Amino acid sequence: MREVVERYYRGCNTKDHGLMTSCLTKDAVHYFPGRPPVRGSASIAELWIELVNTQGSQWTIDHFLGSGREAVVEWSHYRTKIGHVLRGTEWFEFDDAGKIEEIRAYYAAPRDPKVVVLELDGFPYRRRGYLRRVPLKPE
Fold it and tell me: Who is most buried in 75, 125, 131, 138, counting CB within 10 A?
């Protein structure tokens, strides 16, 4: 898994569409907070190529944990053309062939007090068995 994730990030940093898509299933989905998910390996690769071109984006893998068909990466995203750094994590899920089929991004960012529910847009929380309300009220 680590090798696949490292290849994927290398493809992102070098704008290598083929390298990125070789790491992803054709119907891979990338979820983000505050924006609709990006669906399909080609669309995901095109997004990162655009960010490298327009913002000078470069990513580093700061920490990696993996087990079974899942991995978590803590990363730094340097937007060199605009002088911005974003840090966060991504949760990767892999298919049986070892390709990335899902990525869920979480950013280290200040909480927006106007947003009542902070979660990934479009992610199927209910279908995946996540609780949608507090299970017990404090006494």
Answer: 75
